[in-house]
Structure formats: C-alpha cells, structure tokens
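Reply to dn_fold:

You asked what the input looked like. This is it:
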Amino acid sequence: MLRVLIVGQDRFAECLALRLEVFVEEQKVPFEEEEDGLDGESTHFLAADGELSVGTARLRIVNGDGKAERVAVRAAGRRGGVGRALMRAMEAEASRLGAHTMRLNAQVSAIPFYEALGYSAHGPEFDDAGIPHRAMQRELAARASC
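and this is what came back:
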C-alpha cells in the first residue's frame, strides 16, 4: 500500500539515496548540482510501498508560494501513482502553510505529467543541469475556514 510521509532527519538519508539514484545515476546530473544546500530549509516527503521507499520530493515556501523540488520516483514505481501522491501531499502541506500557488521547474519530458495534475507551463524553456526545463504553476484550492 502506497503512503506518503513527511520525514525528518531520521529518514532524510532515504530521500537523498533516491535522489542520487534518479538524478545522479540515471539522469547523469552532476552531484554538485543536485546538492544545492537547500535541504535544511525544506520539508521532505517520502513515498513508500510497504517497506520499500519508491519516491521522494521536497517542498519549500518561497515568497509565500509552495515550490515543489527534487521530485524523484524510482524507475520501478513510475506510472503507478507515486508522483501524483507526492505532488498531492506537497500541495496539501503548502496549502496548510498558507500558500495559494504551487510552483515547480519541470523537466520538459515531464510536462504532460504535471499538466494532468492541473499545472500550466509558462515562460521559455531553460537548461538546468543539462536537462531542458520549463516553469509551471497551479493555484491551490482555498481552504475552508470555520
């Protein structure tokens, strides 16, 4: 059963291992570019299928907006709802923290995935770690107040 957890330092090593597997080993992103020094100011998410860690992502609040970063899903977990579950968990947390908009920089190949989740691309294509990207965003649903 797939579940997404917000994790602290006790499980951060699992998040980092997944990121290194996906970005550094699979996509050949230089380690120095993957390690950007922003992990300490981020909320980290870990997707687990039973005892197996299958995906990770991090959330930062930047200028009042949620920013989804380092979304990584193990090859075996792709197309199984892991990425969607991670994004929805980050959106819920960003909304809880007061954000009204969620932003991200998507690899161009992943744009259809994010569009299916309600994100819209804007601005020109740009290079990040040798991979073409575009900025994307979506408005978060307003939380009902009591």
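Residues 9-26 form the longest helix (18 residues).
Hope that clears it up.
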